């Protein structure tokens, strides 16, 4: 329940400061996680980016105030964080389907987005298979690329293309041949989030013990306790669904919290398109 409580604290903070210029770092501090990790978990649980949630809530409150008071539209625009009445009207129309003036005249329906409350749902229909292990630090080798996290959501555009390039130029095959660690297959690792630039490093890697071969870089994974989740099904949909279960069901139902160590997606099966494809997600816990 600790994860749920910390996320709710962060959401409460957002609600208490809807009219302020808050940053993702301010919000993530309330959940005691990195800003990138908070954005990722928030997106997994709500299917919304933090920025989109804040926009929807602000425009919901703006609409309520618009229809219940005589406050000038220009004053509402500034109050809810818009530089000009025009930018406010554009955002208002996008959410509500009508202009602020039309809403005030009762010419359409308002789209109200309510405050989010994180709750545990006991489903139990789809069991999760996992095991917990403790490991000393280990090395992975591979290639990495810096990606923009995007302005509108917590996703990372460009990663599928990165995998495609690595497959075409033979890097993927080389890494498969070099694998000699405990985690089999290819690894996808997201780490080193830079909040100022809104960028993150993404690795295509494999666990490898020994001197780093030419053409590759190394990344050291610190010693930790890990929960290893079995993921069965076609990729990427099976991976996405597993992440949703991990954060919406497993963590709220267990006495662990995610550690501040980059999680690992292990692509073990050679046929990722198979409905029976077996892969794993490794999450460091505390």
UniProtKB/TrEMBL annotation:
Annotated InterPro entries: AraC_E-bd, Cass2, Homeodomain-like_sf, HTH_AraC, HTH_AraC-typ_CS, MarA-like, Reg_factor_effector_dom_sf, Tscrpt_reg_AraC-type_HTH
A Pfam family that the UniProt record links to this protein: Cass2
Span of domain HTH araC/xylS-type: 8-106
Keywords: DNA-binding, Transcription, Transcription regulation
Lineage: superkingdom: Bacteria
Protein name: AraC family transcriptional regulator
Organism in which the protein naturally occurs: Metabacillus rhizolycopersici
């Amino acid at each position: 329940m600790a994860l749920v409580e910390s996320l709710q604290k962060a959401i409460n903070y957002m609600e208490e400061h809807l009219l302020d210029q808050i940053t993702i770092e301010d919000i993530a501090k309330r959940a005691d996680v990195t800003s990138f990790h908070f954005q990722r978990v928030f997106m997994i649980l709500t299917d919304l980016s933090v920025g989109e949630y804040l926009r929807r809530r602000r425009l919901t409150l703006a609409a309520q105030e618009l229809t219940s008071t005589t406050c000038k539209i220009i004053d509402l625009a500034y109050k809810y964080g818009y530089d000009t009445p025009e930018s406010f009207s554009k955002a208002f129309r996008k959410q509500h389907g009508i202009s602020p003036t039309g809403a005030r005249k009762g010419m359409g329906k308002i789209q109200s987005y309510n405050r989010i409350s994180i709750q545990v749902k006991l489903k139990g229909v789809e069991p999760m298979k996992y095991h917990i292990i403790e490991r000393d630090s280990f090395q992975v080798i591979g290639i990495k690329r810096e990606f923009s996290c995007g302005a509108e959501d917590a996703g990372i555009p460009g990663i599928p293309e990165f995998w495609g390039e690595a497959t075409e130029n033979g890097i993927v095959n080389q890494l498969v041949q070099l694998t000699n660690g405990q985690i089999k297959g290819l690894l996808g690792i997201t780490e080193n989030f830079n909040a100022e630039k809104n960028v993150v490093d993404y690795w295509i890697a494999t666990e490898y013990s020994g001197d780093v071969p030419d053409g590759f870089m190394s990344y050291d994974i610190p010693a930790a306790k890990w929960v290893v989740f079995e993921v069965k099904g076609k990729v990427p949909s099976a991976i996405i669904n597993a992440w949703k279960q991990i954060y919406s069901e497993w963590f709220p139902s267990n006495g662990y919290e995610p550690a501040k160590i980059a999680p690992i997606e292990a692509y073990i099966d050679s046929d990722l398109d198979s409905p029976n494809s077996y892969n794993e997600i490794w999450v460091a816990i505390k």
